[in-house]
Design brief:
This protein is an alpha/beta fold. Helices cover 35% and strands 16% of the residues. The protein has one domain: Alpha-Beta Barrel (TIM Barrel). It has an eight-stranded parallel barrel.
Length: 281
């Protein structure tokens, strides 16, 4: 099974009726895609009432990929708003209960920052994180090239397999140490996650501008690039039962369009999506 979706559901105006209230967007989103990445959880551990509402607004087969809170992955530069790391993880795990009860938690995504390089201290922290998460499926995404350097690539994949991480295959600009190459390998027979970040090399390198978040993911994949990736995804499907595909090139509103193009290229017809509302005007 191939699950295709995008990151978040708020910024994809090509999907929605004109003037639709923000609170209704997830319901309509679920008429197009069977999965979504919850990115609000990165900025704050979400109240369970939020997760419960999102679960209630989506079809029974819908799957959520919940992004780990930034304090868990080292993005939080200041003090974490918890008494300890253990308490932070406990609060985050508790927030997942509605997804788990409904059978809608595909995985938790741990995306680590560019400065999280391959060294013993960080390897130990990854092992500790995985222990804290218990039996919850967890995906691991790096943003530092050292993990996949020629002499460490196979060791990294072996470590991830041993610790029961789900591999995140990334398509992103190649800017040296602050990015990772495309590594088309799965390490789990159950799940693999593909994330499309675009190929905006200039935007990826621009970190100090006030609008860097808007520029970073400003990219629209062309037909040739999508066709190439369609073949990659087919090959990944031969290795893992479920392939999750997320388009994160949101800045220009391109993610939803590219995701729908990929669905068409792969000749996928999803069943059990939410009913779509017709916009007559």
């Amino acid at each position: 099974m191939i699950y295709i979706g995008v990151t978040g559901w708020g910024d994809h105006e090509s999907l929605y009726r004109k003037g639709i209230p923000p609170r209704d967007k997830l319901k309509e989103y679920a008429g197009y895609f069977p999965t979504v990445e919850v990115d609000a959880s990165f900025y704050a551990v979400q109240p369970k009432k939020n997760a419960q509402r999102w679960v209630d607004e989506t079809p029974d087969a819908f799957q959520f990929i919940v992004k780990a809170y930034q304090g868990m992955t080292g993005h939080e530069r200041g003090a974490i708003p918890f008494e300890s790391k253990e308490q932070m993880f406990e609060a985050f795990i508790d927030s997942l209960e509605p997804y788990q009860t409904a059978g809608k938690l595909a995985m938790v995504l741990f995306q680590f920052p560019p400065w999280f390089d391959c060294q013993k201290e960080n390897v130990d922290y990854l092992r500790w994180c995985r222990q804290q998460m218990g039996s919850i499926p967890c995906a691991l995404e790096f943003r530092n090239q050292t993990w996949f350097s020629p002499d460490l690539r196979e060791k990294t994949l072996a470590f991830m397999k041993e610790e029961d991480w789900i591999h995140v295959v990334c398509d992103e600009p190649q800017t040296g140490e602050g990015s990772v190459p495309i590594v088309l390998e799965t390490i789990s027979p159950q799940n693999v996650l593909v994330r499309f970040h675009g190929r905006n090399l200039h935007g990826w390198q621009q970190k100090n501008a006030s609008n860097w978040r808007e520029v970073r993911y400003l990219y629209r994949y062309n037909q040739q690039e999508l066709e190439e990736w369609a073949e990659y995804i087919k090959n990944l499907q031969k290795q893992s039962e479920k392939v999750y595909v997320l388009f994160n090139n949101n800045s220009g509103g391109d993610a939803a369009d590219n995701a729908r193009q990929m669905i068409s290229l792969l000749n996928i017809e999803y069943e059990n999506l939410a009913p779509r509302q017709l916009d007559l005007f």
